[in-house]
């Protein structure tokens, strides 16, 4: 990371729980300045306090990433700052299982709105700031962004789209000093995973899955890789 980027903040969506929370804490330990967003204001505020106790600095904003007006108002406070944005990490997401026959178009649209459209829109809004800092964009994808299984059609479709977005963006912005990484965690012990197991009608043992803290540490590590090197993809699986 350049000295200029080191002075610029990192934006993390979905920061109130799961991988987003773990990443915020990992970056806090490294002294980052963070801009945190998530829907749950109380849990997000707890993460903000934890980041500052670890030595980082953080501002938190309760935010629905599908609310265009709210996102625009939030971004407006940072997009034009001269230091730019050092990193943008898309960790917000949703999942609802069901076969194509069972899943109506409204649910497909919901996956698209949260998992693909929101990252596309926020990335586009912050690209000038990322370019000023020669920053990085990280898309937290999923194993479902590589392989689609039965009952995962809506979620996997949105994650395959997210993969395509990252691959295209990487080629478009490399010459301007912005690096792009896709992270493919396997099943991770998060509240979302507990929800998935409930939908599957299976018992849930978090010890059997990837720890969100491990994903957070890996992503924090790749954000410290100095240019021109770039980690284009990171795959993390349970042993």
What's a quick, concise take on this entry?
The chain is of the alpha/beta class. Helices cover 46% and strands 15% of the residues.
Provide an overview of this structure.
The chain has one domain: Rossmann fold (3-Layer(aba) Sandwich). The protein is built from eight helices and seven strands. It has helices at residues 3-7, 18-29, 41-53, 68-76, 105-133, 153-173, 191-200, 212-222, and strands at residues 10-13, 33-38, 57-62, 87-90, 136-140, 179-185, 233-236. Helix 5 (105-133) packs parallel to helix 6. The longest helix is centred in the middle third of the chain and has 29 residues, at 105-133. The protein starts with a helix and ends with a strand.
What is the average per-residue confidence, as pLDDT, rounded to a whole number? Answer: 91
Overall structural class, as computed from helix and strand content, comes to alpha/beta
Largest sheet report: 7 strands, parallel
CATH topology: Rossmann fold
- Side by side, the strands of the main sheet go 3-2-1-4-5-6-7
Low-confidence stretches: 1-6
Strand content: 15-25%
Which H/E pattern describes the elements? HEHEHEHEHEHEHHE
Q: Given this structure, which CATH class is correct?
A: Alpha Beta
The dominant shape is: globular
What is the oligomeric state here?
Answer: single chain
How many helix segments? 8
Distance between the termini: 31 Å
Number of strands: 7
Number of domains: 1
Q: What is the fourth-level CATH superfamily?
A: NAD(P)-binding Rossmann-like Domain
Alpha carbon gyration radius: 17 Å
CATH architect. name? 3-Layer(aba) Sandwich
What share of residues is helical?
A: 40-55%
């Amino acid at each position: 990371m350049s000295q200029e980027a080191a002075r610029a903040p990192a934006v993390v969506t979905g920061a109130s729980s799961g991988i987003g929370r773990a990443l915020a804490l990992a970056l806090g330990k490294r002294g980052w300045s963070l801009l945190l967003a998530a829907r749950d204001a109380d849990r997000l505020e707890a993460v903000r306090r934890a980041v500052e106790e670890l030595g980082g600095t953080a501002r938190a904003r309760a935010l629905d990433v599908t609310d265009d007006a709210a996102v625009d108002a939030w971004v407006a406070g940072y997009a034009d700052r001269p230091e730019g944005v050092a990193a943008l990490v898309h960790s917000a997401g949703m999942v609802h299982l069901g076969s194509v026959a069972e899943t109506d178009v409204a649910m497909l649209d919901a996956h698209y709105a949260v998992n693909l459209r929101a990252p596309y829109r926020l990335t586009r809004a912050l690209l000038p700031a990322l370019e000023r800092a020669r920053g990085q964009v990280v898309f937290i994808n999923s194993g479902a962004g590589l392989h689609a299984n039965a009952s995962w059609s809506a979620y996997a479709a949105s994650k395959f789209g997210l993969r395509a977005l990252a691959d295209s963006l990487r080629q478009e912005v490399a010459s301007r000093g912005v690096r792009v990484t896709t992270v493919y965690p396997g099943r991770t012990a998060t509240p979302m995973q507990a929800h998935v197991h409930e939908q599957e009608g299976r018992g849930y043992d978090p010890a059997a899955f990837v720890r969100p803290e491990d994903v957070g540490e890996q992503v924090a590590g790749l954000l410290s890789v100095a240019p021109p090197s770039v980690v284009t993809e990171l795959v993390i699986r349970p042993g």
